[in-house]
Here is the input.
Amino acid sequence: MNNSFFMIGKINFRSNLFVFGIPLLMFLLLVTITKRSNLVSEISVFVLIDLLITVPFVYYLLIRSKDISNKTIIIVALLGSFIACSILPKENLKIYALPFVEVLVVFL
Here is the structure.
């Protein structure tokens, strides 16, 4: 058997695990920080920025040299917005989320 074939498959699996694992870990850490914090209303702006801008940007940096489509960044941004809607207080979300979503739609 050709060992180089199996090694390439192993590297691709680890590479994809790294590419999808880092944003997933970022999402999980943001959810954990928000759920355990007593200052949710004070940090909600920063968590929202991380969910809608930082995580998709890190994901873009991870996939730019891979064969993964750049359109998957939209999925990561939408996932961040769904997570933000579920973990952040509604009164803070209405004030800050709408401008971020509008900017995201304009640039896409």
Summary: The radius of gyration is 17 Å. DSSP finds four helices and no strands in the chain. Residues 1-9 have pLDDT under 50 and may be disordered. Residues 3-107 form one domain.
